[in-house]
Amino acid sequence: MPAHHQHSFPVTSTASAVREARHHVVATIGSWNIRRCEEWLDGIELVAGELIANAVLHAGAGPITVDIRQDEVQVFIAVHDPASALPQETDAGPHAESGRGLQLVDAFADRCGAEPTEHGKRCWAAFDLPSSPDPQPGPWPRFPSPSAAPHQQGLDRPWLSIAQHR
Questions:
Q1: What is the mean pLDDT of residues 136-164?
Q2: CB 127 within 8 A of CB 74
């Protein structure tokens, strides 16, 4: 049975802090000796970067905190920031250079969501621990089919609540 781990750290509201925080998340999880494939950790790095970048972009100069937890079944990453507005998916056009971050989080995480807190909000993503002794790369990420809209999949905009899906 895997050990339980927990780590929290503050993030400054600068662009360079996003990269540093993303690497800190990966280094922390790597130090926990979780047997996993590199693609699994790459997905966590991408999602952590998106959650942290959104907090830096939208939270202003307020405090941002990253929490990482691991239990028997999952690694959980939460980013706390002082902005009260919950993230909203945008309909990024085919030539847009931004606006797809939440879609990436939803595609790579096993569960994700956002919720208001007493001091702002918490955006989070959970990643199931690989169950096999030697995890094999699978169909990663799990993108929905182009014809399946979120409401058809029962997702109903997971960023508007604590919705857990999949």
A1: 38
A2: yes
Rounded to 5 degrees, φ, ψ at 3 are -75, 160
Is the pLDDT at 93 greater than 90? The verdict is no
Mean pLDDT of 130-149: 41
| Residue of 9 and 135 predicted with greater confidence | 9
Nearest to 135, CA basis, from 54, 34, 22: 34
- Show the tokens assigned to 89: 């998916």
CATH topology of domain 5-89+98-131+149-160: Heat Shock Protein 90 (3.30.565)
Q: Going by C-beta distance under 8 Å and a sequence separation of 6 or more, which residues neighbour residue 78?
A: 66, 67, 69, 122, 123, 124
List C-alpha distances in Å: 156 to 43, 68, 91: 23, 26, 15
Other CB atoms within 10 A of residue 164 CB: 11
For residue 115, what are the CA distances in angstroms to 1, 48, 133, 164?
Answer: 30, 17, 34, 12
Domains in the chain: boundaries? 5-89+98-131+149-160
Two structure tokens written together for 29: 């999880």
